[in-house]
Every structure is written in structure tokens, then in C-alpha cells.
Amino acid sequence: MRGEDSTYHELQAYKFISQSWNSLANPELVSKHVGLSNGFSDSELPMTSAPHSLAFTSAKNLFAHDFRSLAVKDLLDARDQFHVHLAHKPNVFSTAIGLYLIRTSDPDSGNDSRHRTRRPKASPRTLLNTVVTDWSWPCILVFVTQWLTLDDLRSKPDQVIPPFVYMPDGRMVPICVVLAESSNLPPRVVAPSSLADSTVGIGCPIYVDAQGMRRMGTAACLVSDGSDFYILTNTHLAGESGRAVRALFRGIPLLIGTTHGARNLTEKTFSEVYPELPGRDSVVNIDAAIVRMEDATAWNPKALAQPLGPVADFSAQTASLSWIGRPVVGQGAASGQMRGEIKAIFYRYKSIGGRDYVADFVIGSSADATEPLMTQPGDSGSLWCLDSVLAPNTLSPFAMEWGGQRISSGPSTGQFLQLSLATSMAVTLRELNLDIVQDPTAERSQYWGPVGHFKIGQQACFLVKDQALQSFFTANVNNLSYSSDAQIKLATHLQAAAGFVPLSDVPDVVWKTNINRSKPSVARAQENWNHYADIDLPGADGKTLLDNYLADPKSLNYKAWIAFYKTAPPPSAATSKTMNYGALPFRVWQIFAQMVPYAKQSDGANFLTAAGCLAHYVGDSCQPLHSSQHSDGLNGASTGVHSTYEDNMVDAYADQIGAGIAAAVAKLTFKPRKISTAWDAAMAVMDLMNFCHQALPPEKICSVYNKARPGSGKSATTNLAVLKALWDNCGDATIEVIAAGAVTLAAIWQAAWTASGASSSTGWLTRIYDGTKDLMPIYEDDKFLRSLHLPYLSQTDLPGSDAPVNPPTPPAAKTPAKKTAGKNARKTPAKKGARKTGQTPAKRIPKKRTRKS
After folding, report:
1. What number of other Cβ atoms are within 10 A of residue 364's Cβ?
2. Nearest-CA neighbor of 499 among 522, 471, 467?
3. Residue 482 in contact with residue 503, Cβ under 8 Å?
4. Which phi and psi (to 5°) does residue 506 adopt?
5. Which comes out higher in pLDDT, residue 301 or 679?
6. Strands 282-293, 355-364: pairing kind
7. DSSP class of 772
8. For the residues 550-567, what does the mean pLDDT come to?
9. Which uninterrupted H or E stretch holds 139?
10. pLDDT band at 813, cuts 50/70/90?
């Protein structure tokens, strides 16, 4: 009878609207709030769905009702009794309870003036264009997929939603109709920098592989049962008991734990979770699972900038409308930081077989937001916290996101509502009998400190556009860079004789004679000059290589550079008067020219090895001191700035660099040119060096260093004040040039693959190579990407250039003299930053080696 009664009143309302609209007496007396309640638009007047004692013409008397006395229990009661009726309306998508949403454009959005002027054409009410005010009524929120106008309702009277629900005991509950706006979301994309983490923490991406697919979700937080430590996430991600869960540590997928099936929790009846609240035939979607960590010290307790406070209690006793409008912040693996506010509670989102499914919280955009909240696939498991509500500058966990709501089908994209659905954290922890833990050990050692450099090659893997090629590089990222933190810590001591060296460091560790002392048989006497090019050095005519290139890109050619080097004077403050023929762009030219036939001939091992080595040279290209006469001091001086900046400063602020790369890539103004040939690749590197000189002038690095370190020091320093001065003045630009390097490297890799014409279905693209067996023999062969000074390169090395077909024969490298006993055996340590001018391996003891950015 309840449904029949409501239908009768709706039909009466429709009849009144269609026949007596213009004859309504004193329409200006109708409350603005009542007009909002009808669920159509401000162009409609309140429905005649009044109880037996309330006539339509007495709508103005609704002001006498104190709706603010309605509590959560009243609203749930009313929704239960009216649910069947609403469920049969095709336009009704879902319901929730909350406070009345008033448009920001409405006259009474700023004060309770209760305007009585009817607006014939008002915009639909959405989560983004509305606010909750102090005078907002408690209400049932009804979400609809289409906003119907008065004309629509005249033709579809069955779509009318009454403004109130009338209870048998006399209670009257307002209804607020909201358009459920949706957005097209692309497939999930994770910021490349987040894949360089060496730990896992709140908001980090985690993965499971099942049924031929990789599923990504978010690590909510660390929890404990008093004995073991677990990562809390969603059941729909973690899956069945015993399933392996992985995270990417510095780009390498490593096992972090397995799903603990005994404590998986999907759903419980509403009456079990909230025993004192009405919830007829409803279940709560909890969707919580835990992953038992293999190594609890891999958890990073400082993933969030603000500290975590106590869990905010949301239960049957504390569930109230005071939660509505509270500012909240979440951390998702796909979306990063998300800010919004609680829009509603007890969101009923579907009904199947007589059972209704409920989410505890609806989270939407904050009142001052200009864009909707865009949580997306991959954010499932995100921890949501009240932001400075319970305590200043403190995040209070209150919910875990389990998803958004999709309203269209499709394999990877679709229409998703602009809101987040989440489960009470207090309920989840209570049902699983767990507690949140911030740090598994207060005495955790600094194992994951800022050691090593942020690897450009590693980032480029995730920026390659071709999906098959990207998958190949990401699967082989441990061959390109470092596969564990233990290797990272030892990276400054790597030697060629110790075994496989990650490809991005082969040009330094294996091929440079002043670094490789452990296995000199594979070192290359003419390698060193390939790592730089002084493009800002004035030539005999006062013009630099960069000046010539910007005036005429064709000047980037063999004969022009040889002619420049033969007449250009050395930097004014340089102690050596011998000119070094820096050939960095030509080294890129040479490697690109080799990568194309490797791909065309399906030689995946050589293609990967060449691509990995190329990463090193592009990394050098985006370091401003590698393309400048000021490489280790102004005008060729030797001050130690080179290693202090690129090694010590970058090491000290590696965390900040890693955290900033994704944003830097997203807003990068530099775009690599179109690359079709090897010459194009060389020009792309010249463009990169030019951009880096503008973004971070080499003179600036040297000047900041000199000011922070007065005196006549000639070696690198780890003085914290010097490193801080460099970071404060050059840090943001350092992140920007590293981002530019990663983007350029990815573009060159992609271009070489495209130029080869190889198919994306090539078999070796799915192969993971063994570094020691497959790749090490390649880079130890001196015929592979042969290292020669510029004068000795030929058309074979630089196809399409004006290099000679038969260049001069390079001189043979001399064999190092044997060590002798006595004081004459003492050698001076090799100094990084100064450039080797000879062709014979230096007889020096290598200093501790650090890696380039």
C-alpha cells in the first residue's frame, strides 16, 4: 500500500503540473527548499505527495517543520520503506542519506534567506555544483542518471520523484535528487617515478597476476595482529588465500607477501555491522584483505608528509550526519593524492535477488573544488583520512576505498561516477581484529637511504609509447639498471670483474680505462671522450658548437666538428692545453644506427644491450656539466664541482628527485623532435643539451658551488652546507633536466624500433634475457659499438654523415706497465671531472666511483 499511495500522489502531482501550473495561487510563497526537494529542477513546484493531513496548497506551511531533528535512524527507516518504490524507477541509479545539497548558484547558498522566487530554468544539481550549509535539511539523496525537466515529466509521469517520504507514524523526510555525473576514465597509468621506490608504503601500487592478467591496486596501510605485519588492501585485488602479491622496487617486480586467506572479508549483513540501525535485506561491502609481508622492514612509514593519528570511529553508535562535509585526503596508486569531502553515508548502489548492497561512505569533490574528484581504477585500497579534523595537522584514518561505480560497459574504459566509495576503517579493523601500525620497528636502520642516482634509463622504460616495446623494456629493467637495494648500495664499488654490470653503467664501469682496473682486457682506450661535448666553448671565430647548430643544424656533422676542434682554443682556466674531441652526439648517432638493424634482424640481445648503453650517454647529455667547458669549474678550472653536484648532491636528495620526476615529466615544456634517422637522434641530443643549458646553466652550478665553498679546493666535497646550497638553487632544475633526459631516451628507443619496421609480435619482445649469459659477452666484445675518438669514425659508424669511408687508423693502446715495489709505486688517485687526454690507459688507483644521474 505504501507504493500505491506514493504513486497516487505522484499522479496527482503530474496532473496538477500539467493542468494547473499557471493557476497556482501565490507560487512565490513556495519555499525554495521545497522546490529543490521535488527532484526535477527549480522550474517545478513541490509535489502533491503530502500525507492525508497536508494539502498541496499548504506547501508554504512546510517551514513549520523542523527537519533538522531527523537522525540517521529516521533517514534509514524512510529509505527502507520507500526503497521498493524508487527501485522501480528506471532513472533512479542509487540512494544514500545525508544533508540537502544546495547549488552554489542558488540565492540561498550563502544564507538562509529562503527565497520564494521560482527559477524557471535551473541547472541540474550535482555533487560538484552544490554545497552543504548549516540550514541544509537531513534527507534521502536520490541519484539519477538523467536530469528531467518539467516538459520531460509531462510526458513521463512515472518518473516523478516526490519531494518527501511520509511515514505511518507522521514523520516526514525530505528527498534531494542529484544528477549522478560520470566521466570517461582511461586505462590506469602509474607515474613512472613511483616505480623507482625501493620500499612500499601508504598509497603505493601493488600487483597480483591471475588468469593471464595483471591487477593493480593500492596499499592502504600496515596493520598487525600483535604477531605479524600485513598490508591492508581490497579482497578483489588480493584474491584467494596464498596468492602472491608484488610491488615494483626500483622498477623490478618483487614479491612482498602473500594473501592471508583466514582474514579475508568481503561482505557482512548490515544488521551485523550496524546492529542498532535499520537496514532491511542489506549487506555492507567491506572488501578487505590482508597480505602477510615477507620482510616487514620494506615498509616505509614516511610515505605521507603528515603524521597519522588515531583511527576515526565510525560505528552504529557514532554514525551521524555530522560526518557530512568533513574534508578528507586519500592516497591512490593511480591518482596520487586525492582531496575531497564526505558527501553522504550508507550509499545503496545495487540490488540483486532481493539483497541491497551498501557502501559506508560517498566521497566527492570538496566545496571549493573546480574539478570533480577523479578516482580511477588502480586506486582500490586507498586509505582515506580526515584532514586536520580531530587534531591539527594530523590525518585520521576513517575509510578504505574499494572503488568507484561504473555505469557503462567496456574492457578498459567507461563511464564512472565522479565519486569514491569506501568502507569504514574502524569497522574493517574491528571485524579483522587488527590494529594500524605506522612503523614496524622504531629502530629501523637507514637501509633505504639516498644511495645511488635516479636512473634515467629506468624511467624511460615506462615512457616508451609502443606497448609491446614498453613491456619488453620493463620486463628487462633489471638488465638496464639495478635489481635490488643491495646492488644499489654496492653500486659505488662495482667493478667489471665482479660479473654482470647493468647496461646503463657499462660505458663507465666496463669501458672507461680510468674506472675499470679490475678487468682491463675489456676496457677501451678511446671511450672517455664519448661522454661529453663542450658545446658552449668559443671557437677560433668566437662562435660555439651550439651557436653553429642553432644557426644551421647541418653543422652537426663530422667535418664541421673536426674543423672546430682543430682551431678552437682550450678553456681559459684549463691546465691542459690539449683539445679533447668530445663526441657525445655522434656516439648517440652511432648507437642508433646499430639498433635499427639489430631490431630488423630480430637480434633482441644486441638491441637490448645497445639500448641500455645508450641510456648512459643520454643521461650524460642532460647533465649540464657534461656539455660545457665549465665541466669541473668555471672556464675549465678544476674545483670538484662536477662530482659534488652529480654524485654527492644527487645522492643526498635522491628521494626528492624521485618524488618530483613524474610531475616534471607531466609539465615538461621540452619535446623531442621527430626522429627518423640516426642524424635525427644526434640532433635530438643536441636539442636536449641546449634545453638543459637554458634550464640549468652550467655557470650557475659552478657559481653556487664557489660561493658555498670558498677557497681553493679541487676535489669533490660531501659538506652538507655545500650540498644544500646546490639543492636549494639547482634542485628543481635538476629534476626538470632529468625528466627531459628520460623523455628523450624513450623517444630515441621508440624511433629506432619504428625505423626498423619490426613487428610488435616479434618473439623476442616477450623474452627476459640473462645478463651474465646473454648480454655480458656482447658488451665485453670490443667490436660491439666500438669506442673511437671522433677523427677515427667512418661512414660505417655514422651512416648518412660526411665522415670518410676510410678514416685514419686509430693508434693501438699501450699495455699498462707492471707495478713495482717501493715508493715509486705510489700513484695519484684519478680525479673525476678532469678529462683524460691521452689514449693510453692511465696508471692511477681508481677513486671510489659514483654513478651518474
Report:
1. 26
2. 522
3. no
4. -60, -45
5. 679
6. parallel
7. I
8. 95
9. strand 138-144
10. low
